[in-house]
Write a structure and sequence with these properties.
By secondary structure, the protein is an alpha+beta fold. The protein is 25% helix and 24% strand.
């Protein structure tokens, strides 16, 4: 650990995630861009804020005024945040499409999509369903 902590992207990520972990959305918004603030408001209204279990291993790859930071540990979704530098301040810059994926279990829907079994069974063994022996 480094003892003298200058306000870099790691500090912004830690402050942002700590606020989210504690469900303090207004505090988290202090460390984020306007688009991230809007996303947090929407997620908060829907009661879909990311569930953060622990905050550790923050590592940032900085390129000029942008940074990509990884961390541990969210319950679901990816453990990565994008940041931008505005003046001397680093801010979390998450867009809707890069937000933690709260509905990661969508592929489960594809298992029953290919078989319309309900359409096949009524005609079998039921002459009233339009079979050939329906005449009196």
């Amino acid at each position: 650990m480094v003892s003298c902590e200058k306000p870099g992207p790691e500090a912004a990520v830690k402050n942002y995630l700590t606020a989210l972990k504690d469900k303090k959305v207004d505090e988290a918004k202090k460390y984020s861009t306007e688009s991230t603030q809007n996303m947090l408001d929407a997620l908060n209204q829907l009661k879909m804020l990311p569930e953060i279990t622990e905050i550790k291993d923050i590592k940032c790859d900085v390129k000029d005024t942008a940074a990509t930071c990884t961390f541990c540990c969210m319950k679901e979704g990816k453990n990565e945040l994008k940041l931008v530098k505005r003046g001397e301040k680093w801010l979390v810059d998450e867009k809707k499409e890069s937000a933690p994926d709260m509905n990661a279990e969508q592929p489960a829907d594809t298992t029953s999509a290919g078989q319309p079994a309900a359409e096949v069974t009524p005609a079998e063994g039921n002459p009233a369903a339009g079979g050939q022996g329906a005449g009196h």
